[in-house]
Design brief:
Radius of gyration: 39 Å
Number of strands: 24
Order of helices and strands: HEEEEEEEEEEEEEEEEEEEEEEEE
Number of helices: 1
Length: 255
């Protein structure tokens, strides 16, 4: 009878020495927004006997009372659950993280790509959209603050071709850039050297000639008649009607 009591006491002592596990998640923080996958999940665990820790099915690497596991994420909201198990039971802890690998979408509304202007500056407008918050918008390196996704910035132009680049970054760290080209030209000039103002003539048509200037392709018309150009000079044969005639030379280019 004494021997039986001793065996029962030893079995009870062995059962009492097995402590259920505990587990915590120290990183990542709950509600983290990230563009990185897989993500490292780490924390601490406790419990007697051998404790196994898994995070979403991935077995963690243990060091002392700490663990870590590399866990793949899917786009959108992810729940990360660390589960510690030993012979006495199990325990779990969870956090939620959001994976966003999609960069912002930039649409430049104005000016049009490959447009030309004679202005010294141009207003650049457009929109930026993203599932996450937009943290930065820059136009040619200058930060601008969007309002409800819309942005606007004035960019100085040099004569010739100008590249305008808009860059946007979201809260997850995704970035996107888009560029357009705007060419600044010199506004055209035009003069009439012949005929002299106030000329009285019996001849029609009359030859109107003069000079013009301006970058890009310049078109010269006199009273609607397209002039022939040679270098910076032009001439046009323009019909007259009896009486006073006003001769108007108009120079136009892409600006």
């Amino acid at each position: 009878m004494l021997a039986v009591a001793t065996v029962c006491a030893l079995a009870s002592s062995a059962l009492a020495s097995s402590t259920p596990p505990t587990v915590t998640i120290g990183s990542p923080a709950n509600s983290l927004l990230t563009k990185t996958t897989p993500i490292t999940v780490s924390g601490t665990f406790g419990g007697s006997a051998t404790v196994t820790v898994k995070v979403n099915g991935v077995t963690g690497t243990k060091s002392g009372s700490s663990y870590s596991a590399r866990v793949p994420l899917t786009e959108g909201l992810n729940t990360l659950t660390a589960t510690a198990t030993n012979s006495a039971g199990s325990a779990s802890a969870s956090v939620q993280v959001t994976l966003d690998k999609t960069p912002p979408v930039i649409a430049i509304g104005a000016p049009a790509n490959n447009s030309t202007t004679s202005a010294a500056s141009v207003a650049v407008t457009g929109t930026v959209t993203d599932a996450s918050a937009i943290t930065s918008v820059k136009v040619n390196g200058t930060a601008v603050t969007p309002s409800n996704g819309a942005f606007s910035s004035t960019v100085s132009l040099s004569l010739g071709s100008n590249t305008i680049t808009v860059t946007a970054t979201d809260a997850a760290g995704n970035s996107c850039s888009t560029s357009i080209t705007v060419t600044r030209v010199t506004a055209p000039t035009v003069t009439i050297s012949s005929p002299a103002n106030g000329l009285l003539t019996r001849t029609t048509p009359v030859t109107v000639s003069g000079s013009f200037g301006g970058t890009a392709t310049v078109t010269v018309k006199v009273n609607g008649v397209t002039a022939t150009k040679s270098g910076s000079s032009y001439s046009a044969s323009v019909p007259l009607s009896d009486g006073a005639n006003t001769l108007t030379a108009t120079a136009t280019n892409a600006g």
